[in-house]
Amino acid sequence: MNYGHALEFGVRLPIGGADPALPVRWARLAEELGLDLVVVPDRPALAGPEAWTLLSWIAGVTDTIRLATDGHDDTARNPAMLARAAAGLDHLSGGRVELGLTAGTGDDVDETIDVVGELWNVLDHGLARVNGRRHRLAGAQKAAPAHEVPITVSGPDPEDPDLARLAGTRADGWSVPLTDPAGLAAGLRLVDEAARGAGRDPREIRRWVTVAGRSGVHAGSVDRVAEGWVVEGWAADLLALVVEHGVGTIVLHTDDPDTLTRFAREVVPAVRAGADAALPHGAAGVRVRRSTVLARRRSGIDYDGVPTGLAGVVEPGDLAYARLRSGYLRGGSPGVVLQAATVEQVVAALGFARRHPDLPLSRRSAGHGVSGRSTNDGGIVIDVSLMNTIEVLDEATRRVRVGPGARWTDVANALAPHGWAISSGDYGGVGVGGLATAGGVGYLAREHGLTIDHLRAVALVLADGSVVRCSDGENPDLFWAVRGAGANFGIATAFEFEADEVGPVAFAALTQDARDTARYLVEWGRVVEESPRDLTSFLIVPPPRGGQPTVALTHTVVDSGDPEIVLARLAPLAAIAPMYQQQVTITTYADIMASASDDTPTSRGEPVARSGLVHHLTPEFAAVASRVLRSGGIHWFQLRSVGGAVADVDPDATAYAHRKPNFSLVVMGSHPDVVDEQWALVRPYLDGLYLSFESSLRPERIDQAWPPRTLARLRDLKATYDPDGVFDDNFSLTPSRHPEASTR
Ligand SMILES: Cc1cc2nc3c(=O)[nH]c(=O)nc-3n(C[C@H](O)[C@H](O)[C@H](O)COP(=O)(O)OP(=O)(O)OC[C@H]3O[C@@H](n4cnc5c(N)ncnc54)[C@H](O)[C@@H]3O)c2cc1C
Fold first, then answer.
1. Is 465 within the bounds of a domain?
2. Looking at 165-174, 320-329, 619-628, 679-688, which range is the least confident one?
3. Calpha distance 702→683 (Å, rounded)
4. Where in this chain does the entry annotate a coiled-coil region (predicted)?
């Protein structure tokens, strides 16, 4: 029987000799020779470097080869430390670690698996707890590896029932030295039975054999190497193990580098070719999902019909799900995340999603959507975060192409060496895909406009799966719509921007007394409006707490590196109210954008954010705003300056039509009704909203996001390009009954 595993070959490294660097040289040689993995015995009693130290060293001098251990002694190393060592090295090595445990050495392998599994289980929230016979975890911090590190149990006797039980019920691999094929077959049957008894698919368990390089496979081939190497015979023996017994991993144990070289160069290709010819899935194998993964599947999704060839298919039982399920501000539990790394993959993923019309469909670039609609409950997420390249297309015109999954900190870093920047936002972790389809209100807004004002072309996958490029000259109607309502029309797969020349800039963080909040707001608004365009300022007023005086925190960028100009621009701001703290630096736009966390978003629950645009901070508005701040109903209040270059653009030129207001207001709170009660007070002073800062799905928000003429045009286009409402996850437009409707 063959289990459909991708065929892989490794070498057991020589440990314990006089030269501690020998296994390192072997590992490099194995990688050069194209082998898949090296195996290091983890036995404290052995002379030579300790296993995890050695593996770390090897990880540092190799790039691709996987790093497997074999054996573990829980009296010498606590399993919790083993879990941390393996997880840490897995991250450092780019997901190359495999863990081997040995049955029958006195180690309590069951408990080791309990401890390791619990510490790695970040799919279930909370601290790690195990109450074992030898080991206890009483609320330990979990720390997952970078990928699903397989656990293989090994033993000297293929027919050992305990080894078979462990492998069949608890592990991902079963590993034995090759003795005789009959013993191997008997052991494999035991593993299959144990797996079935535990409700697992026997294919979940990879079968490893270690073969001795100098002694051949069968007793009859003992002296083959010494006799001059009969490659064909050895390859045939190994192929039989693969085809007849389902062995997936073959590890060579030898102390002879020539044997290793010939094994890799001659035997391995021959076995692979034989497997390709003999097996339905060839040496590449098929993907077998763990029963633990199957158990967490959601209903209504044709998991078996997911297109092959996607960069990733992440289900609720997969480790990567913990990283991808939620956004920065909203918890999610989608049924599957389809990771697309190319346009073709996006098209395939969208085709699959369209076969599930009753399930929610979300699109995710960097997962920082304030509305949080880039995830959902039980539906499908098409994740394009891997489409994150940034390339300069033309130096002369400063034309750059950026993938939707790039984050603005990455864009800023890539453009900095050219002396360029694109005004984006105030946080480098935000993604290009979400922001550049909505607007982009950034620290350079008054001088350089919105992010979308720098867009020159966008590549889109439309609802019907067609791939289009839009610009002023190609599909201009779509290009108009994408700049402000992009999420309604497709999945953006690339953006072409014209960057601006931006030199050193000043970044000022001021903390001022704002106990007369209304006065502060009016004054700040006045100073901003009177300032030259090279100043853009964002203001946060934290709701006053516990009798503390209200403070105003401003982050202001002056698009100049000249200290005289910077001081002249900041002086009126500083004069508004007494200063508690101030920090002004001449820096780069890339440095300002460097504020991006790589931490996994662990949000739960729903964000409650309300957005509105304000023309002027009048005393009337300011009085109401300061009441809202004191109400206790909101926990976040921010005003951003817009205006300037943003207002230069004709409101009809893009679907971001509210060009005239000078300020963008966002408040956040915990409960929608409480926030809305406060929001109703400021509502009369607002003119439109910026949908990137709004989380409400109420229909009137659509009317506030786009003025009537813009909305009518958008609805016509929606009828043409997405009549079935495939892209309805975020501020969904109702298609008009346009004559062109349903032509696509
Ligand atoms: C901490 C923080 C700071 C922010 N600061 C600013 C700021 O200064 N200025 C500003 O303008 N905004 C800001 N935002 C808002 C931000 O611009 C939007 O929320 C934006 O949508 C996030 O983009 P993303 O790709 O990270 O989001 P995601 O969560 O991945 O996507 C959000 C939504 O965008 C749409 N979308 C995503 N990718 C695509 C795609 N490839 N094609 C089509 N539609 C897509 C989908 O509707 C999706 O639901 C901030 C948000 C946060 C959380």
1. no
2. 320-329
3. 15
4. none
